[in-house]
Design a protein that fits this description.
The complex is a heterodimer of chains A (321) and B (444). By secondary structure, chain A is α/β, with parallel strands linked by helices. Chain A is built from ten helices and 14 strands. In chain A, strands 6-7-8-3-9-10 form a six-stranded mixed sheet, with helices on both faces. A four-stranded antiparallel sheet of chain A has the order 2-1-4-5, covered by helices on one side. A four-stranded antiparallel sheet of chain A has the order 12-13-11-14. Chain B has 14 helices and nine strands. Chain B has helices at residues 21-35, 37-58, 79-101, 106-110, 114-118, 124-157, 173-205, 208-228, 232-236, 239-243, 257-282, 296-319, 326-347, 414-417, and strands spanning 163-164, 170-171, 358-365, 377-388, 391-402, 407-411, 421-423, 429-431, 436-440. Chain B has a five-stranded antiparallel sheet, with helices on one face. A two-stranded antiparallel ribbon of chain B has the order 1-2. In chain B, strands 7-8 form a two-stranded antiparallel sheet.
């Protein structure tokens, strides 16, 4: 048993699938009671890390402890007090939502008393008797969350928990995660959407190609983030660029697509837009291209947040192994 | 989502958890099996199939006389379970075993649910053994269902008439029921072995189709190999041979070796298949979702190994020394004939002491010009000389077809042993037991 104030402690974790190194000496340390984000583009190794933490995949190298208990021996049960899911949660399609949870409760030791409570918590009480085969991916996601909560977790490991949910569902899941924090639960939430995690997480680890490229508190991340970027359409781009020369705190680049990319803090951007108006240049459209955190994500990973590289499916490489 | 509804309640239960263990996995798997269509359908077939077979056969003018007890299916319902047991020993037991065992691991790949159950409080060891015991339970339950269903169907549809056993002696109802129970109990060990073969294919292929077809193909290959020759070594490693150990139960004084050998062979298949499956499951990385498509390279490798082993066994079958000799044939046919003579005379109202009847058999293969007669084939002839009280000097020539498993069918000349049907002492009609009869030699 190690330090129990540290809920998740992984050092030098290496996992390869054939020639692909999904985790390359990865380190992460999450203190108990914290909500920690795990961000990175698709293929960064987030899902592989969660599979390793759950014991689904044995690491080639490194040490892992959850709640002070060593993880990693092939075939061992998931550490007690650890719940969650990896990728989209899956259930037995020929059974109802309630029956699925009852069976999962049996696997945990037979406590079925909370099945209805957790179903109500995730908004599935009215569909508890329906077969899961007819559920949308969003409903399955909710059921996955219910199944995780059923385990009385002290650590929740959630892999892209908002995928497949409508905006209201996303908001509700994030609210739920915030409440977990109030109950001193530790959560590790993976996402490729930096903005989604911004209001939820205390700290974050940014992953790239199986490595941690940034790790720290959300406040520090914000502080270190570059200025946000905006797209700007004007009536006279050439003069707008010329005027930008007198605004030291903004950078303007003409894009071949026909807009200007303006980077700068909010106040500097305001001053620049006002000067354009004074100069008789119409601002036809101004929209956020990347928030500060997204800019940071871009800087750290080299991948625009909205661009999930389809050809890099590192997390799924091991499917046939 | 109704987060506000539960705003004051704790989100997660604050109970102390205990591990699920093998028992929990077993109960969950049984619940899943009971909810699935295919296992239910097969259970229905096991329940109603023997009844349908019995009704069908009772409406036919012919009987399945190529099966042991087949010629008695119109006379005694007790013959039905023995006929069903032989049919089940072709592909029935592998099918029963494969339905659940072949799918019980691969279905988790198909439904991408490994991550769902492996992230609970059960170790892989718990899950492996829980699933294995559940598959065993289903296979055993289906064998019991077939046995009970065929016995009840036979007695209800045909009646509880006396049946003549493989030794040629009539068997009372109580003893017959005990023999049926014992015979199906013997079939349990090979069925468990087929179940383990199914588990092996299910775990290693991660594909339900391969998992289900694996035991069936294995069973079919074994069946074909068992028809090839009567050699001792090759036949003894085949699971259908282990089932056939039930023959010995009906023949007094026969060796118990086939029974023990069958148990050892079944145990060997069980242990080897399960151990390979367990190792594969234990070291597997669950790194992706979905059923793995059957890759040609793996399939080719599997087929190559399978064909290689089969070829080895085929060659072995031809090289293997047969245990069927004219001495064995004479001993078995002579003893069975003597018992049948006593049975026939009993039907005619003439009670005979079996010990007072002497039979002198001379058996040989017609195709053998010189040297000793041996091996299976349908060209055996036996001339039987019988002496006894109230019996005139009787000399009967039977043509005997001997199958590789040592069982045989003997057909006699009606002009000597009488017609197919004889009139009993009370006036009722009965099958003449000497007209044609079945028997089995038990391998030493």
């Amino acid at each position: 048993m190690g330090d129990t104030s540290v809920a998740i402690d992984a050092r030098g974790v290496v996992k390869s699938f054939g020639d692909v190194r999904a985790l390359d000496g990865f380190d992460i340390r999450v203190e108990a009671g914290r909500i920690h984000g795990l961000v990175g583009p698709n293929g960064a190794g987030k899902t592989t890390l969660l599979r390793v933490l759950f014991g689904l995949v044995a690491p080639d190298e490194g040490s892992i402890a959850l709640l002070g208990e060593d993880v990693g021996a092939a075939g061992s049960a998931t550490v007690e007090g650890v719940g969650g899911f990896v990728e989209d949660p899956r259930f037995y399609s020929y059974l109802s939502a309630r029956r699925n949870l009852e069976l999962l409760a049996d696997l945990d030791g037979g406590d079925r008393d909370h099945v209805d409570a957790v179903l109500g918590l995730v908004g599935l009480k009215d569909r508890a008797g329906r077969k899961v085969g007819g559920f949308s991916s969003g409903a399955r996601q909710r059921l996955g969350l219910a199944a995780s909560l059923l385990r009385a977790p002290r650590i929740l490991l959630l892999d892209e928990p908002t995928v497949g949910l409508d905006p209201l569902g996303v908001s509700e899941v994030l609210q739920l995660v915030k409440r977990l924090k109030a109950e001193r639960l530790t959560a590790l939430i993976s996402s490729h959407n930096m903005l989604e995690l911004e209001g939820v997480c205390d700290s974050v680890t940014v992953m790239r190609e199986g490595k941690s490229v940034w790790d720290g508190s959300m406040d520090r991340l914000r502080a270190e983030s570059p200025a946000p970027a905006h797209r700007l359409w004007t009536s006279d781009d050439a003069r707008a660029i010329e005027i930008a020369g007198s605004h030291a705190r903004v950078g303007v680049v003409r894009e071949p697509e026909g807009w200007l990319t303006v980077s700068g803090e909010r106040e500097a951007l305001d001053e620049y837009v006002v000067s354009l108006g004074r100069a008789g240049i119409a601002v036809r459209r101004l929209e956020l291209l990347m928030s500060a955190l997204e800019s940071m994500f871009f800087a750290l990973t080299g991948v625009r947040p909205e661009e999930a590289p389809a050809d890099v499916e590192r997390d799924r490489v091991g499917a046939a192994t | 989502m109704t987060v506000s509804a539960a705003r004051t309640a704790p989100l997660t239960p604050a109970t102390t958890r205990r591990r699920g263990g093998v028992g929990a996995v077993y109960r969950v798997e049984i619940a899943k099996i009971a909810s699935q269509l295919l296992p239910r359908l097969v259970a229905l077939v096991c329940l109603l199939g023997p009844l349908a077979f019995t009704i069908f056969i009772s409406t036919q003018s012919t009987v399945p006389s190529d099966s042991l007890f087949g010629r008695w299916v119109h006379t005694s319902g007790f013959a039905i379970p023995f006929v069903v047991l032989q049919f089940a020993n072709t592909l029935g037991f592998p099918l029963i075993a494969s339905v659940v065992a072949g799918d019980i691991f691969a279905s988790e790949d198909r439904q991408s649910t490994w991550k769902t159950i492996l992230t609970r409080s059960c170790s892989r060891r718990d899950i492996f053994w829980g699933k294995t015991w559940a598959a065993f339970t289903y296979s055993i339950a289906m064998v019991v269902l077939v046995a009970a269903s065929s016995l009840i169907a036979g007695v209800v549809v045909v009646g509880a008439g006396q049946v003549i056993g493989l030794s040629g002696a009539p068997i009372g109802p109580g003893r017959t029921i005990a023999l049926i129970v014992e015979s199906f109990a013997i079939a349990l060990a090979p069925t468990i072995a087929f179940t383990c073969v199914g588990i092996f294919f299910s775990v290693t292929s991660r594909n339900s189709v391969v998992g289900i077809l694996g035991p069936l193909v294995t069973g079919l290959v074994m069946l074909l190999l068992s028809l090839l020759g009567s050699g001792v070594v090759v036949r003894s490693v085949l699971l259908p041979t282990a089932v056939e150990a039930w023959h010995g139960l009906q023949i007094p004084g026969s060796s118990a070796t086939p029974l023990w050998l069958g148990l050892v062979v079944s145990a060997a298949w069980t242990v080897l298949s399960l151990d390979a499956a367990r190792r594969s499951f234990q070291r597997r990385d669950f790194a992706g979702d979905g059923q793995v498509p059957v890759s040609w390279s793996r399939l080719e490798r599997g087929v190559f190994v399978g064909v290689g082993v089969t070829a080895l066994l085929v060659v072995g079958s031809f090289l293997d020394r047969t245990w069927i000799t004219s001495k064995h044939v004479e001993t078995s046919v002579g003893a069975t004939f003597r018992n049948l003579v006593v049975a026939q005379q009993g039907l005619l109202g003439r009670e005979l002491d079996p010990d007072s009847v002497q039979v002198y058999p001379f058996c040989k293969r017609e195709s053998v010009v010189s040297g000793p007669s041996r091996g299976s084939g349908d060209d055996w002839t036996c001339t039987l000389y019988a002496n006894g009280p109230r019996l005139s000097q009787l000399a009967v020539g039977y043509t005997v077809a001997i199958r590789p498993n040592g069982c045989y069918t003997a057909d006699g000349p009606p002009e000597v042993i009488g017609p197919l049907h004889i009139r009993k002492a009370g006036g009722a009609t009965a099958i003449n037991p000497l007209f044609a009869f079945d028997g089995c030699m038990i391998a030493p």
